[in-house]
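Sanity check. The docking grid for nicotinamide-adenine-dinucleotide depends on where the pocket ends up, so I'm generating a full predicted complex first rather than guessing from homology. Inputs follow.
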Amino acid sequence: MAIGTARGTHEAKARGALALVPDGVHLIGGDWSAAASGETIEVVDPASGDVLRRVPRGGADDVAAAVSAAAAAFPRWRDMSPTARAELIHRWGDLCIQHGEEIAILECLEVGKPFRGPSTIGERAIYFAGLADKVTGDTLPSARPDVLGITLREPYGVCGSIVPWNFPPSLMMGDVAPAISAGNTIVVKPPEDAPLACLYVGKLALDAGIPPGVVNVVTGIGGEAGAALPLHPLVRHMSFTGSPETGSKVMAACAQRLIPLHLELGGKSPQIVLRDADLSAAVPSIVRNFTNNAGQVCVAGTRLVVEDALHDEIVDKVAAEMAKVRVGPWYEDVDMGPLISAKQERRVLGYLGIGREEGAEVIVGGKKMSGDKFDRGFFVEPTLFDGVMPHMRVAQEEIFGPVLSVLSAQDVDEAVEIANGTRYGLGASIWTRDIKKAIQAAKRIESGQVYINQYGSAGVIGAPFGGYKNSGFGRTGSAETILEYTQLKAVVFNAGG
Ligand code: NAD
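Predicted complex below; grid placement will be based on this.
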């Protein structure tokens, strides 16, 4: 969906959205404040290279101020009636829906993704608001008549959340909503490349009446503000979404402090197509699910695993579908935008070279895009590699760009073996009309979500999302998620004295 056809319309909307986030400040204890060091970092429009805004280059001092604010806000927030907490979080969700267009535009501006309508992150807040007063313990069996045992689920206290740049407001909400619904307070470190929508969503929490200090947003660079967060002595629980390499560092910091961690990492998700699949449904979905957000999606379906019998036909059809992918800046009626940064563009172009060197054949795309519309931004062609072998790096490593690798399998068994043959296990789709094969494969695939004849969990409310193997642990977006932000206490009453 384009946002106004006249150039002036999108520019006015962009100006309006940017005006919602003041320059050079982040949100600590309910106030906009500059970094303790006074330093800032630039946030750049990836379609043009223009500087959108400056945000504080927060460091350990800013993290400490935010953690203190969160610790001060915790007792009152914890002790508030869960119904009252739910009402405030619900109001926050309503405000996020009401201002969904502004949230989406900020995200489009800083990430480069095409505008597809207002943000729906408010629904996520409302889902978890509904769970706030349904966190219950158990009554335990007693071995003696005069003893009663129960369990209580209690919040940890101050939580930390580190968010990557591909879907910042939605991933922030995925951590914050369950954490605060359970009675915790939180400090969020948004990505340095795309912190603006997160700052605005944090401000909306205050507008909703959530007390200052419950949600804090500290901007800064990963190795500085990010590294300081899990190491702060008052942080009792961490959530991290990002690359396995950084996840491992955050986990080491949590290990040093002996605090729990919710970890959402990358993927190399397979889209398996069996010979009896409905290709008219499968092919558009396959293409959409590796070009969405220019492939910068942890659960992007970047390996196409096809039964031999179907190979030539599906490669032709996917190539034809890819020719329809329209690329351009966020405000045009396009399917794909630029990559987020020059760094990410170098990474993706590097993998295009690696694939060729390994002997994969480029069927479509394969290079940086050029022309007036593309020269100032980080645009890379959607690319189809055929003849990919399971051991190749383009079949094993997360590229995080619009690159699809085709792998052939003799039958469903080999397809599942290939699907399972990476370090990752986040999502997987199986396209077939044979329900028996679909069920068997779904059970054998090692991944946190499996989709049959669609890609993604659209249509399901509260589907747990998370990884097997190196894709992480912990589940986001489901009723179980709120329990991850609680600790279990057993209380024993002795009536006998
Ligand atoms: P990244 O790991 O570089 O950065 C993620 C976040 O960690 C950023 O906020 C960054 O500032 C911070 N960070 C960087 N170094 C840090 C350090 N030493 N200590 C603490 N924090 C640090 O990842 P990215 O490039 O921003 O995002 C891309 C990766 O994220 C991909 O691998 C992708 O698959 C993964 N991802 C996973 C999910 C999921 O839900 N599983 C969702 C989105 C992205």
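Relevant for the grid: The longest strand covers residues 147-155.
Also worth noting: Residues 60-79 form the longest helix (20 residues).
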